[in-house]
Specification:
25 strands; 2 domains; four-stranded parallel sheet; about 30% helix; alpha/beta; GMP Synthetase, Chain A, domain 3; Rossmann fold
Length: about 475
């Protein structure tokens, strides 16, 4: 099997595959024939830089055509695509590089300064030369015949009790997305679908272009900052039929933009964290469309979702996708990996999971009709604006500041973002107050990805701990 070959070549070369918008308003349309030719050309350049089957290739590219090309080229040659969020800082990337040992990084010039020493890279200027038909190029690499269990993609978790862990997906993960593409994402032949997820997250790897193409739709990508009114304007101008957003984006649009029916808009989907029922109701009342919520983990891929042809039950994350076996055991949602076509191969630092049931760590209830209702997470991960943030990472960043003796990070409820990062800090030196709180926030932004910084910083004389000395985060949470 080879996803790049099988999927791209099933369409006419002249069929639109990708509509790309940049932050300056420039618009490009890429056809399937162009993607085949350009990814073939890029494959020769990767081979000339020593990339072989099974090697990891890191990307530090935003929602641009070059990111899609890099991913497709990895699929073509059997390299392992390792997309990274462009907000990651050097310590974040050092950890990922140590775990995955990338052979090459492909990145935008403005992000390459954060790249750890010793990793060869290709800038987008160099990539542009590779795509320039007037320049000499290395011979393309023919699509590699791959086994379904061969590695395809590496995505890192957010980390809860430790650093993020690399999750390796097999080749079958790519074609396995057809299940959720048809029974949740719901795009149709000839439509335009827009998944707004930033590169580096599991949802972007599967839904920005893979799910649309599996349904015969074109994909829209936008390399620009989120603005609620602009989001609706772009969807209206481009004729978007299916919109996939994080719950926070739906919340912000409901609060800050003028909700209205969008001509051509047919289907709305959301995943990443629970979506408030009142937001779903607002969209239903003002746009005529309800939001179809879904559920999955980095390790599992999509597990449950509202079907495209059903009226959502507000607040539910839907039913298990067809064929996926789940159970609720002592309140925890568990699934049988053998029935989940997108289940991961292994963590990079451990052996494959061989148990009969995978525990998600999420506590749910299931009603008589099979619909799942999220209740709480069993671990401490913070779901904020679609990002999954491990408290350990933020605490570690805070502890690198000379004024901090101890720090505990928990979630705090937020109307728009669902949750935000709240830090409780014990000082080593300095005076507690707004000035130092701002300094600590800026410090975290400089040490790790800015989206992880604590939006609330509080000071305390001590932290609650267990008898073994572990911080009791549960005692710090506010409801």
């Amino acid at each position: 099997m080879n996803f790049a070959e099988e999927i791209l070549e099933r369409f006419p070369a002249s069929k639109p595959a990708l509509v790309a918008l940049d932050s300056d308003g420039n618009r490009e349309v890429w056809h399937f024939g162009e993607l085949i030719a350009r990814s073939a050309g890029l494959s020769g350049a990767l081979a000339a830089r020593g990339v072989r089957r099974g090697d990891a290739v890191m990307t530090l590219v935003g929602n641009r055509p070059e990111w899609v090309l890099a991913m497709l080229t990895c699929f073509r040659v059997g390299a392992v695509a390792m997309p990274c969020n462009v907000q990651l800082r050097r310590p974040d990337l050092e950890h990922r590089a140590a775990a995955a040992n990338p052979k090459l990084a492909i990145g935008e010039e403005r992000y390459l300064d954060e790249l750890p020493e010793g990793i060869p890279y290709m800038s987008l200027a160099e990539l542009a030369d590779v795509l320039d038909e007037d320049l000499p190029h290395d011979a393309p690499v023919e699509p590699v015949d791959l086994d379904p269990d061969d590695p395809a993609v590496i995505i890192f978790t957010s980390g809860t009790t430790g650093k993020p862990r690399g999750v390796a997906y097999p080749q079958r993960y790519l074609t396995g997305q057809r299940l959720q593409a048809e029974h949740w994402f719901g795009a149709r032949e000839g439509e335009l679908a827009w998944c707004t997820a930033a590169t580096g997250w599991s949802k972007s790897a599967r839904n920005v272009f893979i799910a649309p193409w599996l349904c015969g739709a074109a994909a829209l990508i936008h390399d620009g900052r989120f603005d609620p009114e602009e989001r609706l304007a772009i969807a209206e101008r481009e004729g978007v039929n299916v919109l996939c957003q994080a719950p926070t984006e739906y919340r912000m649009i409901a609060k800050r933009a003028e909700l209205r029916p969008i001509p051509g808009m047919r289907h709305l989907v959301s995943a990443g964290e629970p979506l408030n029922p009142e937001v779903i109701r607002a969209f239903r009342e003002e746009t005529g469309l309800a939001i179809h919520d879904g559920y999955g983990q980095t390790e599992t891929g999509p597990v449950a979702g509202m079907r495209p042809d059903e009226d959502p039950r507000d607040g539910s994350m839907g039913r298990p996708l067809p064929g996926i076996e789940i159970r609720v055991n002592d309140g925890e949602l568990q699934l049988r990996p053998q029935t989940c076509p997108t289940f991961f191969s292994r963590y990079l630092d451990s052996e494959p999971f061989e148990g009969e049931w995978w525990g998600t760590g999420d506590h749910v209830t299931q009603d008589d009709d099979g619909y799942l209702w999220f209740e709480a997470r069993a671990d401490d991960v913070i779901l904020s604006a679609g990002y999954r943030i491990g408290p350990f990472e933020v605490e570690s960043a805070l502890l690198t500041h000379p004024a901090v003796a101890e720090a505990a990070v928990v979630s705090a409820p937020d109307e728009e973002r669902g949750s935000i990062v709240r830090a409780v800090v014990v000082l080593r030196e300095g005076d507690p107050g707004p000035e130092l709180a701002g300094e600590l926030q800026d410090h975290v932004k400089g040490v790790t990805a800015p989206y992880k910084y604590p939006r609330v910083v509080e000071f305390a004389d001590s932290l609650p701990k267990t008898s073994s000395g572990k911080i009791r985060r549960s005692a710090l949470r506010v409801s």
